[in-house]
Design goal:
By secondary structure, the protein is an alpha+beta fold. The chain has one domain: Cytochrome Bc1 Complex, Chain A, domain 1, CATH 3.30.830.10. The chain has 6 helices and 5 strands. It has helices spanning 44-51, 61-69, 95-107, 113-131, 134-147, 160-163, and strands at 4-7, 13-16, 23-30, 74-79, 84-91. Strand 1 and strand 2 form a beta hairpin.
Protein backbone atom coordinates (compact mmCIF):
# COMPACT_ATOMS: atom_id res chain seq x y z
CA UNK A 1 0.00 0.00 0.00
CA UNK A 2 1.30 3.44 -0.93
CA UNK A 3 2.06 6.13 1.63
CA UNK A 4 1.63 9.88 1.27
CA UNK A 5 4.06 12.45 2.62
CA UNK A 6 3.47 16.11 3.38
CA UNK A 7 5.78 18.65 5.01
CA UNK A 8 4.14 21.40 7.04
CA UNK A 9 5.43 25.00 6.98
CA UNK A 10 7.05 24.41 10.40
CA UNK A 11 9.11 21.53 8.96
CA UNK A 12 7.05 18.76 10.55
CA UNK A 13 6.88 15.82 8.15
CA UNK A 14 3.63 13.89 8.02
CA UNK A 15 3.49 10.41 6.53
CA UNK A 16 0.10 8.81 5.98
CA UNK A 17 -0.39 5.20 4.97
CA UNK A 18 -4.04 4.36 4.24
CA UNK A 19 -5.41 1.11 5.64
CA UNK A 20 -8.72 -0.72 5.79
CA UNK A 21 -8.23 -1.51 9.47
CA UNK A 22 -10.42 0.07 12.14
CA UNK A 23 -7.29 0.44 14.29
CA UNK A 24 -4.91 3.30 13.54
CA UNK A 25 -1.48 4.29 14.76
CA UNK A 26 -0.12 7.79 15.02
CA UNK A 27 3.17 9.00 16.39
CA UNK A 28 5.96 11.52 16.53
CA UNK A 29 9.40 10.26 15.55
CA UNK A 30 11.79 12.71 17.17
CA UNK A 31 15.27 12.79 15.70
CA UNK A 32 16.98 12.72 19.09
CA UNK A 33 18.32 9.69 20.88
CA UNK A 34 21.21 8.83 23.11
CA UNK A 35 23.70 9.46 20.28
CA UNK A 36 22.96 13.17 20.80
CA UNK A 37 23.84 13.20 24.51
CA UNK A 38 26.96 14.76 25.95
CA UNK A 39 28.93 12.84 28.58
CA UNK A 40 27.10 14.62 31.42
CA UNK A 41 23.68 14.02 29.80
CA UNK A 42 23.76 10.21 29.67
CA UNK A 43 20.21 8.93 30.00
CA UNK A 44 18.56 12.31 29.33
CA UNK A 45 16.75 11.20 26.14
CA UNK A 46 15.23 8.22 27.95
CA UNK A 47 14.47 10.38 30.99
CA UNK A 48 12.61 12.95 28.87
CA UNK A 49 10.68 10.12 27.21
CA UNK A 50 9.36 9.18 30.66
CA UNK A 51 8.67 12.76 31.73
CA UNK A 52 6.55 13.85 28.78
CA UNK A 53 3.71 11.79 30.25
CA UNK A 54 3.91 13.63 33.60
CA UNK A 55 2.16 16.86 32.72
CA UNK A 56 1.64 19.55 30.11
CA UNK A 57 0.56 23.17 30.23
CA UNK A 58 -3.08 22.02 30.22
CA UNK A 59 -3.04 18.42 31.51
CA UNK A 60 -1.99 16.58 34.65
CA UNK A 61 -0.34 13.16 34.31
CA UNK A 62 -3.54 11.19 34.88
CA UNK A 63 -5.37 13.26 32.23
CA UNK A 64 -2.69 12.33 29.71
CA UNK A 65 -2.97 8.60 30.35
CA UNK A 66 -6.76 8.57 30.52
CA UNK A 67 -7.25 10.59 27.32
CA UNK A 68 -6.58 7.54 25.11
CA UNK A 69 -7.45 4.77 27.57
CA UNK A 70 -10.98 6.14 27.99
CA UNK A 71 -11.67 5.34 24.33
CA UNK A 72 -9.84 1.99 24.28
CA UNK A 73 -6.60 3.42 22.94
CA UNK A 74 -3.02 3.05 24.06
CA UNK A 75 -0.30 5.65 24.50
CA UNK A 76 3.39 4.79 24.71
CA UNK A 77 6.95 5.82 23.85
CA UNK A 78 10.43 4.43 23.47
CA UNK A 79 13.96 5.75 23.14
CA UNK A 80 16.85 4.21 21.31
CA UNK A 81 20.25 5.47 20.24
CA UNK A 82 18.89 7.22 17.15
CA UNK A 83 15.41 8.48 18.01
CA UNK A 84 12.64 8.95 20.51
CA UNK A 85 9.20 7.77 19.42
CA UNK A 86 5.91 8.80 21.03
CA UNK A 87 2.89 7.00 19.64
CA UNK A 88 -0.71 5.95 20.13
CA UNK A 89 -2.90 3.08 18.93
CA UNK A 90 -6.65 3.74 18.73
CA UNK A 91 -9.84 3.24 16.76
CA UNK A 92 -9.77 5.34 13.58
CA UNK A 93 -12.63 7.54 14.79
CA UNK A 94 -10.32 8.89 17.53
CA UNK A 95 -7.56 10.15 15.22
CA UNK A 96 -8.17 13.80 16.15
CA UNK A 97 -8.01 12.98 19.86
CA UNK A 98 -4.75 11.08 19.41
CA UNK A 99 -3.10 13.78 17.29
CA UNK A 100 -4.09 16.55 19.70
CA UNK A 101 -2.81 14.59 22.70
CA UNK A 102 0.48 13.64 21.07
CA UNK A 103 1.04 17.23 19.98
CA UNK A 104 0.33 18.44 23.50
CA UNK A 105 2.78 16.09 25.21
CA UNK A 106 5.53 16.55 22.62
CA UNK A 107 5.35 20.35 22.40
CA UNK A 108 3.90 21.45 25.76
CA UNK A 109 5.32 19.16 28.47
CA UNK A 110 6.19 21.03 31.65
CA UNK A 111 8.63 18.63 33.36
CA UNK A 112 7.55 19.40 36.95
CA UNK A 113 10.42 19.03 39.43
CA UNK A 114 8.38 16.80 41.79
CA UNK A 115 7.71 14.42 38.86
CA UNK A 116 11.41 14.46 37.95
CA UNK A 117 12.25 13.37 41.48
CA UNK A 118 9.70 10.53 41.39
CA UNK A 119 10.67 9.38 37.91
CA UNK A 120 14.37 9.38 38.81
CA UNK A 121 13.70 6.53 41.24
CA UNK A 122 11.56 4.67 38.68
CA UNK A 123 14.40 4.79 36.15
CA UNK A 124 17.01 3.82 38.74
CA UNK A 125 14.88 0.73 39.49
CA UNK A 126 14.79 0.08 35.74
CA UNK A 127 18.59 0.34 35.60
CA UNK A 128 18.96 -2.10 38.51
CA UNK A 129 16.66 -4.61 36.79
CA UNK A 130 18.64 -4.18 33.58
CA UNK A 131 21.90 -4.80 35.43
CA UNK A 132 20.50 -8.11 36.70
CA UNK A 133 20.38 -9.37 33.09
CA UNK A 134 23.70 -10.85 31.93
CA UNK A 135 22.61 -10.83 28.28
CA UNK A 136 21.93 -7.08 28.42
CA UNK A 137 25.27 -6.40 30.10
CA UNK A 138 27.15 -8.44 27.50
CA UNK A 139 25.48 -6.45 24.73
CA UNK A 140 26.45 -3.19 26.47
CA UNK A 141 30.06 -4.37 26.79
CA UNK A 142 30.05 -5.28 23.11
CA UNK A 143 28.78 -1.82 22.08
CA UNK A 144 31.29 -0.16 24.39
CA UNK A 145 34.13 -2.06 22.70
CA UNK A 146 32.89 -1.17 19.22
CA UNK A 147 32.17 2.51 19.81
CA UNK A 148 34.70 3.20 22.58
CA UNK A 149 34.10 6.73 23.91
CA UNK A 150 31.35 7.61 21.43
CA UNK A 151 27.76 8.16 22.67
CA UNK A 152 26.63 5.11 20.65
CA UNK A 153 28.62 2.97 23.08
CA UNK A 154 26.67 4.16 26.11
CA UNK A 155 23.68 2.56 27.80
CA UNK A 156 20.36 4.20 26.90
CA UNK A 157 19.17 4.24 30.51
CA UNK A 158 22.00 6.45 31.79
CA UNK A 159 23.73 6.43 35.15
CA UNK A 160 22.00 6.86 38.53
CA UNK A 161 24.37 9.61 39.70
CA UNK A 162 23.66 11.68 36.57
CA UNK A 163 19.91 11.05 36.74
CA UNK A 164 19.79 12.34 40.30
CA UNK A 165 21.25 15.63 39.09
CA UNK A 166 18.71 16.33 36.33
CA UNK A 167 16.44 19.35 36.87
CA UNK A 168 13.45 20.87 35.07
CA UNK A 169 15.68 23.30 33.19
CA UNK A 170 17.78 20.41 31.83
CA UNK A 171 14.83 18.88 30.02
Amino acid sequence: MQSNEHILPNGLRIIHKPTLSKVAYCGFAIDAGTRDEEENEQGMAHFVEHLIFKGTEKRKAWHILNRMENVGGDLNAYTNKEETMVYAAFLTEHLGRAMELLGDIVFHSTFPQHEIEKETEVIIDEIQSYEDSPSELIFDDFEDLIFRNHPLGRNILGKPDLLRGFRTEDA
